[in-house]
User: Which sequence fits this backbone?
């Protein structure tokens, strides 16, 4: 095989027909008489494009990941490569034997034993009888099914079913392997075993095309990534870069959705306002408390605002490095909290503060200009106060923000309690609340002393 | 050539066909107490019912087709192959929807497997004729001189089966692919088959049609299954050489049917994974 590439996708589009009864006969007629099953779809009115003009060349021995949100055409692309469906226009050239793991356990028959199903499933995936006989024991061992291997498949738990299916699947030996989202089965140990098999494929210079929502896996496994958005190629190339821009796009969309939601929430809350007075513990002065929302399942703490209103915080913005207003941030991003205030008279030594909470009310951090000895002698009229945070290393989740303007004694001018929230995402899978700045290093092993080399 | 390429592809997948036929046979009666025995029991029970209805209740006793049980079996067993293969293959693409959508293989395998697994079932069920013939021939010593079950004409069996297979295969390809788009076919087919069954000389001798009205004679001539059934009856019951000229015509017709069925199937092939 002298071809350099394994798969060449050349301006491929795929349209699906929105079937309706009246046109069915016409379609069937033209399909039979003129073989126009696909071409008549050019009539755009009743066609839905799952893929639009996608071009990509996959080199032999590379692992290519396809990412994108649901309905972006990932699986369609995989089916086109497999040859299960045909492109409406464009062409796909493949060099080498293709196996597709689009569904685990395809062809499994519930009534017959696992042992017998191995044969059927294996042959369906393109293994020969001899290959199957040679690998038989290995497959059974890999599945960890033990005595259950002789029981009918219908008695299996879904985990057992998947294990058996995967055990057969990983034993296929094609030049090009297509995998659709099937790695996400079984317990951790089994998934690891499957990943080992995939790495093994990579080592043997096979071409793998891999559809997954597990972005971490995609980054680790793939040499190249294709990002599909609504059927069109939105990005291709280096996994880390493409995944990054994909996450950013996702976050932006999410941002828009959240803003809409927040707007609705505020409209709802307006009807539930209630007012009462409280006395300051430190100064004995009285101020008004306004309850802005009742606790809900998503936000168990009522949103409140209180204070004497001598200084008001009229707007709070979360800004990214580029100064854009956001409500979603990536772990490790720089973030600036900006407060737009208004002072009715000249106020001496005001203090501005913030506090960050996780959605389970654990306080992550709180500070103010007084604690930090950032002196603001006096304010009057309108102005802004920024607090810039370098590398917000919070792990993914929803966080709440309190902001306040008060006196040095703590008497509130304007306190915003749980009024703001933002989201953090990450494509790494570390756990906890906060990512500590860290590096790994491997020291020398004790028994390597005699022939250790400088690293 | 396209069709040669497809046939070659089919040949490459012979192991898959073989394995799927095996699965079909294994799974069919799995879980039932009598298991594989149902292969024999099913046609036997049907035979008992027809014998009761015709010989006992309706007192229909044509001396030319005695023993009736063997006569009935000679036509009924091939018919059961035809009807179950037709019904099952018509539904095969929809039934195997998951495979059509998710596995790389030539989809014509699905109807073909249904036809072949029912063929195996048919050939096995033929063994039932042996004990019946032994009983009627040597124990109850039937008087009918036309009745010659064990004869040299049995060598024609493969020829008849081949013609029959060609006919069923053509129909299976045509109906399975059309049924993907017109699911009414599956609903209709069972009723049509019942009607067809009574038009075909299985429970009565073909003379009933040949001595009947002009329409009945024409119907007999045009019904490919009448000729195929007659051939089976010649082999299994009368011990005569089947009408090879008629079989040749049926085979020619079946060959055209296969080509037509395959053509339709191939034209619609690309739509299967989207429509099932």
Assistant:
């Amino acid at each position: 095989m002298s071809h350099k590439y394994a798969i060449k996708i050349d301006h491929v589009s795929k349209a699906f027909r929105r079937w309706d009864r009246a046109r069915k006969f016409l379609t069937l007629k033209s399909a039979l008489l003129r073989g126009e099953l696909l071409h008549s779809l050019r009539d755009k009115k009743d066609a839905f494009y799952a893929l639009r003009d996608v071009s990509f060349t996959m080199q032999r021995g590379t692992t290519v990941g396809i990412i994108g949100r649901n309905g972006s055409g990932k699986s369609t692309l995989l089916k086109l490569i497999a040859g299960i469906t045909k492109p409406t226009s464009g062409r796909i050239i493949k060099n080498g034997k293709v196996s597709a793991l689009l569904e685990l356990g395809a062809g499994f028959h519930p009534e017959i034993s696992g042992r017998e199903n191995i044969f059927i499933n294996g042959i369906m995936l393109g293994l020969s009888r001899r290959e199957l006989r040679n690998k038989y024991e290995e497959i059974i061992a890999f599945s960890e099914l033990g005595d259950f291997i002789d029981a009918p498949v219908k008695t299996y738990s879904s985990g057992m079913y998947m294990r058996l299916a995967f055990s057969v699947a990983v034993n296929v030996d094609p030049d090009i392997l297509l995998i659709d989202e099937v790695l996400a089965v079984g317990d951790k140990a089994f998934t690891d075993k499957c990943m080992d098999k995939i790495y093994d494929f990579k080592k043997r210079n096979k071409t793998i095309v891999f559809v997954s929502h597990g972005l971490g896996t995609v980054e680790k496994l793939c040499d190249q990534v294709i990002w599909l958005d609504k059927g069109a190629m939105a990005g291709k190339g280096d996994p880390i870069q493409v995944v990054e821009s994909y996450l950013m796009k996702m976050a932006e969309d999410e941002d828009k959705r959240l803003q809409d939601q927040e707007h609705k929430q505020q409209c709802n809350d307006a009807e539930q306002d209630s007012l009462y007075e409280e006395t300051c513990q430190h100064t004995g002065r009285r101020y008004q408390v306004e309850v802005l929302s009742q606790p809900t399942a998503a936000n168990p703490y009522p949103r409140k605002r209180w204070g004497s209103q001598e200084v008001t915080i009229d707007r709070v913005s979360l800004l990214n490095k580029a100064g854009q207003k956001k409500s979603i941030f990536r772990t490790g991003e720089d973030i600036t909290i900006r407060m737009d205030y208004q002072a009715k008279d000249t106020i001496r030594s005001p203090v501005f503060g913030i506090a960050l909470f996780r959605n389970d009310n654990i306080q992550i951090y709180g500070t103010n200009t007084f604690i930090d000895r950032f002196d603001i002698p006096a304010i009057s009229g309108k102005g802004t106060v920024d607090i810039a945070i370098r590398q917000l290393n919070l792990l993914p989740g929803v966080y709440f923000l309190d902001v306040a303007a008060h006196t040095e004694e703590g008497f509130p001018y304007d306190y915003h309690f749980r009024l703001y929230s933002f989201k953090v995402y990450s494509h790494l899978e570390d756990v906890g609340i906060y990512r500590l700045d860290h590096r790994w290093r491997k020291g020398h092993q004790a028994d390597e002393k005699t022939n250790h080399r400088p690293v | 050539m396209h069709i040669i390429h497809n046939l070659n592809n089919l040949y490459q997948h012979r192991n898959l066909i073989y394995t799927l036929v095996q699965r079909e046979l294994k799974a069919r009666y799995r879980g039932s107490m009598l298991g594989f025995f149902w292969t024999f029991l099913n046609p036997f029970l049907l035979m008992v019912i027809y014998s009761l209805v015709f010989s006992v209740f309706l007192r229909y006793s044509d001396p030319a087709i005695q023993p009736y049980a063997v006569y009935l079996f000679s036509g009924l067993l091939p018919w059961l192959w035809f009807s179950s293969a037709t019904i099952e293959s018509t539904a095969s693409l929809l039934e195997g929807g998951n495979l059509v959508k998710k596995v790389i293989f030539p989809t014509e395998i699905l109807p073909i497997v249904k036809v072949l697994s029912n063929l195996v079932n048919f050939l096995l069920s033929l063994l039932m004729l042996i004990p019946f013939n032994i009983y009627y021939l040597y124990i109850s010593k039937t008087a009918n001189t036309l009745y010659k079950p064990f004869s040299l004409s049995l060598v024609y069996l493969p020829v008849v089966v081949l013609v029959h297979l060609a006919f069923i295969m053509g129909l299976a390809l045509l109906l399975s692919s059309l049924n993907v788009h017109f699911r009414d076919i599956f609903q209709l087919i069972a009723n049509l088959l019942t009607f067809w069954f009574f038009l075909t000389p299985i429970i009565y001798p073909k003379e009933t049609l040949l001595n009947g009205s002009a329409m009945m004679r024409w119907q007999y001539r045009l019904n490919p299954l009448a000729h195929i059934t007659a051939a089976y009856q010649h082999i299994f019951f009368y011990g005569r050489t089947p009408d090879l000229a008629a079989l040749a015509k049926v085979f020619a017709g079946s060959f055209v049917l296969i080509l037509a069925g395959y053509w339709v199937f191939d034209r619609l092939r690309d739509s299967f994974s989207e429509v099932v």
In short: The mean pLDDT of chain A is 82. The longest strand of chain A covers residues 333-348. The domain at 5-247 of chain A is CATH 3.40.50.300 (Rossmann fold).
